[in-house]
UniProtKB/TrEMBL annotation:
The keyword Protease does not apply. The chain crosses the membrane at residues 33-52, 199-225, 245-263, 290-309, 315-340, 380-399, 543-562, 574-595, 607-626, 647-674, 686-711. It holds the Pfam family MMPL. PANTHER family: MEMBRANE PROTEIN MJ1562-RELATED, MEMBRANE PROTEIN YDFJ. Gene3D superfamilies: Multidrug efflux transporter AcrB transmembrane domain. SUPFAM superfamilies: Multidrug efflux transporter AcrB transmembrane domain. Keywords: Cell membrane, Membrane, Transmembrane, Transmembrane helix. This is MMPL family transporter. It is found in: Cell membrane.
């Protein structure tokens, strides 16, 4: 099991812990594999046994809208699920006699339907275009969407019995069910496509089935382990239902990346004549070290989400950090074990044509030297042009608007959403609504109700708000009389300027006037519009703090890793350039209308509120993967005594195949998420895919080599206390590793 050390290699006792762990795993592969399987199984089974502790509405309260939600929760209102039967004309004017007959029949049939607690009398629209019958469902409102079938069967029977009118069922439960069905199918398709697409790309990259399968195996086992661990962690920090999707997205990306880095280097060393164990150890010492640094950088970036003081971001941070940590551990333990056990079988079974192409790519690269030549021959010109182009792409980000998607941004492919549009057109008060939540001593309940009634009537005469219905304003008071809630509807969609103006007027004028005569009251205005406005303000406040945290800690990690202040600083600047370009591209695509047709969306003229902060940490973390890997190869060449210019060429060309393959996997997976129905997933998928593409091409092929060529030996400058004696140079290195770009 012993090997002869190459000249300049440190003795075993001086090897880093990561190398010693990888060496042990390679020497004891069955033990390492068994331990990994047990670890993944314990994490996954333990997580499922513990169950998920989901975040409550109080946990997710942000800003004044959040305070309104908390006040409403204090009222402990009975909030049953409500559906509606909407009767409209199939075309032209409504036949009132036919509509009345259908309404009477609907009341009779719905009262006899299982799961119905109460049926209201029909309410006509102000313009006479519709009749609306409210239906209160029995049972737990959280499970109402699962108990809709009897009501839908009754609605279908009514539709058959009254063909002269259009009869539809619409309400919160039916809309939620339709969206769950649509979005559930979307996510299922995305998750199912992600694996075969990733595997297909890896088969093309490696030309062998086992080599392609190992990264997917490591990535998916890491995902399962992280899902279990995040479920356990939810009992310390509540989780949200989006955490597992992000774990899959991040886990697949970094798991495949780390395996690619490692397997490529191991194959390179075997091609030089190293034995299996030696090749694994050298891969651990080089690519394994880069994986650890990359993982730390990604985890630091994700940890920045905690500073957003938002339970959703905290949940995503926990899931992302766990899956990255597990992926790093797997790449240093079970991956070396698998490679050592498989030996040359990792290159079996070979796909004939793809194997020849892969073998050709493993030799001296041909395309990349040509691509690098302009940056290395005229670095200043290449730098000015490339940075200028990226800055120009980033300029639109200055005009970024942030809003939450509203009901109008949901896909209109389902009958439930089409019925919702007709409902809000005929009954504006059932659409967008603000609500005022007031908490006061029970003795003042009557004064509070009077104040709210006066507010509603005053606002009802303002064109920014919907008129008050004939039966008076909608005011609810808690059983103990301490909490009152007033619904104030607006006829405008949630993200329109008019809806925002109505919120501002309600908060700045009507509510202060109404509350002026009351004492000992706590009040807040909430609703979808308020939530969007308050959350956008929250993100704008927290984004600089998160960015500063990520930048400073990443800078420290890079300085300690490369012992160079200059490398650390250029790493930060290049990643900022990449993120800025991605922001600008998002604004260009989604705040206009020109891309609606090709990408299949309706522009909301803004970016989804949570996206800029989340994109920053994800992109910054994932970009560091490539940067650390490439710069590590450049430093290897410099430490062997190669000139700076040739070292830059060697580092980029020798890592080009790995970086390109990893980037293609990421771009493909993220692009799949861009095909989902909702606007937020489209923006996330396209933002991530575009940024990774820019990072792996323009940044790595033009900007990075230009900067490092211009700086020369200054790349490796550091204060004296950070310097360490460079390792001895390797006496023998194959000449083919140095690629001529002259």
């Amino acid at each position: 099991m012993n090997r002869t050390l190459a000249e300049g290699e440190p003795a075993m006792g001086k090897r880093p812990m990561t190398v010693r762990v990888a060496r042990w795993s390679a020497e004891h592969p069955w033990r390492a594999i068994a331990l990994w399987v047990v670890f993944v199984a314990v994490c996954f089974v333990g997580g499922n046994a513990a169950g998920l502790n989901e975040a409550t509405d109080e946990d997710q309260a942000i800003g004044e809208a959040g305070r309104a939600s908390v006040i409403e929760i204090h009222g402990d209102f009975d909030d049953p699920a409500v559906e509606n039967v909407l009767i409209t004309a199939p075309g032209g004017e409504l036949d009132r006699a036919a509509a009345d007959a259908a309404a009477a029949d609907a009341i009779t049939r719905m009262k006899a339907t299982a799961g119905v607690a109460k049926v209201d009398e029909p309410v006509p629209a102000r313009d006479g275009s519709a009749l609306l019958i409210g239906i209160t469902m029995a049972g737990d409102p959280d499970t109402a969407s699962d108990r809709l079938q009897p009501l839908q069967d009754t609605t279908e029977a009514l539709r058959q019995a009254h063909p002269r009118v259009r009869i539809e069922e619409v309400g919160g439960p039916s809309i939620n069910k339709a969206l769950d069905d649509t979005l559930g199918a979307d996510f299922q398709r995305a998750e199912l496509l992600s694996l075969p697409v990733t595997l297909a790309i890896l088969i093309v990259a490696f030309g062998a089935l086992i080599a392609a399968g190992v990264p997917v195996l490591l990535a998916m086992s890491s995902v399962f382990a992280a899902m279990g661990l995040s479920t356990l962690a939810s009992h310390l920090l509540p989780a949200t239902d989006t955490t597992n999707s992000v774990i899959l997205l991040i886990g697949l990306a970094v798991g495949v990346d780390y395996s690619l880095f490692y397997i490529r280097r191991e194959r390179e060393e075997r091609a030089k004549g190293r034995g299996h164990l030696d090749a694994v150890e050298i891969a651990a010492e080089t690519s394994g070290h880069a994986v650890v640094v990359s993982g730390i950088a990604v985890m630091i970036a994700m940890a920045g989400l905690f500073l957003a003081t938002d339970v959703v971001f905290s949940s995503l941070a926990v899931g992302s950090i766990l899956v990255v940590a597990v992926s790093v551990i797997g790449s240093l333990t079970v991956l070396p074990a698998l490679l050592a056990k498989l030996g040359r079988w990792v290159d079996r079974p070979r796909v004939p044509l793809l194997w020849r192409l892969s073998a050709r790519r493993s030799g001296a690269p041909r395309i990349w030297p040509a691509l690098l030549r302009p940056a290395l021959r005229r670095p200043l010109l290449a730098l000015v042009i490339s940075v200028g182009a990226l800055l120009a792409l980033a300029v639109p980000a200055a005009g970024m608007k942030m809003k939450f998607p509203g009901m109008e941004d949901l896909p209109r492919t389902t009958p439930a959403m089409q019925a919702y549009d007709r409902l809000t057109a005929a009954f504006p008060s059932t659409g967008t609504a603000h609500y005022l939540a007031v908490e006061a001593p029970a003795a003042e309940a009557a004064q509070v109700k009077a104040a709210l009634t006066g507010l509603a009537e005053k606002a009802g005469g303002d064109p920014l708000f919907a008129p008050v219905e004939a039966d008076g304003p909608e005011i609810e008071q808690s059983a103990d009389g301490t909490v009152s809630v007033l619904q104030v509807a607006t006829p405008y969609h949630t993200r329109t300027d008019e809806a925002r103006q109505s919120l501002d007027k309600l908060r700045d004028v009507y509510v202060p006037e109404a509350m002026a005569g009351l004492s000992n009251v706590d009040y807040a205005v909430g609703g979808d519009v308020a939530g969007s406005v308050d959350y956008a303000a929250h993100i704008r406040q927290k984004l600089p703090l998160v960015m500063a945290f990520v930048l400073i800690l990443t800078f420290v990690v890079m300085v300690l890793t490369f012992r160079s202040v200059v490398v650390a600083l250029t790493s930060i600047l290049l990643n900022l350039l990449s993120v800025g370009a991605a922001y600008g591209l998002l604004v260009l695509v989604f705040q206009g209308t020109w891309a609606e047709g090709p990408l299949g969306f309706t522009s909301m003229e803004s970016i989804v509120t949570w996206l800029p902060l989340f994109l920053f940490v994800v992109l910054f973390g994932l970009s560091m993967d490539y940067h650390v890997f490439v710069v590590s190869r450049i430093r290897e060449a410099v430490q062997r005594g190669v000139s700076n210019r040739d070292a830059v060429a060697y580092g980029i060309t020798s890592s080009a195949g790995t970086v390109s393959s990893a980037a293609i996997v990421m771009v493909a997976v993220f692009s799949i998420f861009a095909t989902l129905s909702t606007i937020d997933m489209k923006q996330l998928g396209i933002g991530l895919a575009a940024a990774i593409l820019l990072d792996a091409t323009i940044i790595r092929a033009v900007v990075l080599p230009s900067v490092m060529t211009l700086l020369g030996d200054a790349n490796w400058w550091a204060p004296r206390f950070l310097r360490r004696r460079p390792p001895a140079r390797h006496a023998q290195e194959p000449e083919r590793e140095l690629v001529s770009v002259h």
